[in-house]
Specification:
Radius of gyration of chain B: 31 Å
Largest sheet of chain A: none
Structural class of chain B: mainly alpha
Helix content of chain A: 55-70%
Number of helices of chain B: 3
Shape of chain B: globular
Oligomer: heterodimer
CATH topology of the largest domain in chain B: Flavocytochrome C3, Chain A, domain 2
Helix content of chain B: 25-40%
CATH architecture of the largest domain in chain B: Orthogonal Bundle
Shape of chain A: extended
Radius of gyration of chain A: 23 Å
Number of domains of chain A: 2
Chain lengths: ~220, ~160
Amino acid sequence: METNNKGFIGRIRSLGWGFAAMLFIGGVLFWGAFNTAMEWTNREAFCISCHEMKDNVYQEYRNTIHASNRSGVRATCPDCHVPKEWGPKIIRKIQASNEVLHKILGTIDTPEKFNAKRLELAKHEWERMKKTDSRECRNCHNFDSFDYAEQGRRSSRMHQTGLNEGKTCIDCHKGIAHALPEVEQAIGAPKEGATPEEFHPTTPKPAEAGKDADKATKG
Amino acid sequence: MNKPTFKSTRLRAVALALTLSMGLAQTFLAPAAAVAATEAPVKLQSLRGAEIDASDPEGDGTRYGRDQAPLPRDFVQQPPLIPHTIKGYTVTKNFNKCLDCHAWSRAKESGATKISVTHFKTREGEELSSVSPRRYFCNQCHVPQSDAKPLVGNTFKPGTGMR
């Protein structure tokens, strides 16, 4: 009863300032350790420590512009696949526990199994990118800073029309870092792959990203 | 009578001797020539001067240029050249990057040249409703251009109707 009357500060005071300082330092240390551990999993070396990643998607990525280019600036696995902001990052990290489960189950532990799942996995990433208006692309690529005179004929025209129509990066830029799943292109026997609507969606990006769309239109 | 006969006989003998000696020479010398051939083989090289089992030499400046408008053709039935870079464009079992813009369903949006209707036929001439799978590998005929200097001379002139 007595302690209740003192309130929170009072209770801490009764325990002594030394204890409060210990709590604070403990909190800082805990946060530091937690963040360090989380960032430790946000490295290319960590991602390719699993052969599922190393033997499949990593090999496909190695020859792409994001892995090897004239200036050596790279976008590694977490740059595209893990959000930078703290909230979305924690959510993504919690979702990744499902990936740990499937690592243990061996769902994609051979190239054959991986390719059988490739369409589904690719669709998940397309959907994630679409929902956030390609947030992870835009961490580096800012439409407002596009110099259309420096871009090629095709890219300059397509970027301006696409952005004006409210499209987002992933609507066109699929399979830029990894091999694509089967895509229906009306040649030969029909494939059980991504349909034209899935591969080139015409729907505008979600309302959440409306602000950025306006900016892009003005720019 | 005798004289000419003798003469003709002598001539014949000479001819025979010559033939024999040539034949002998061939019999004995031919293997030697064959040995010589294995020792010093004819040097084979590609038109561009490289060993036949080596890659062709690369000229200076083999970078793709900036995107251009469609390039003119130099001879009848020439597969049109690719006036843009194709770096990183893949043609795999799953996906053909070229078709992603040049297919009829994509050409309007992308502004690319539509695939010719000649590509909608089977080898037997049967018309198809879509591009024939035998035309899947675009780069077998269509090639991009770089600013590389020619490695060998060329006197080719565009066909009269193409100038």
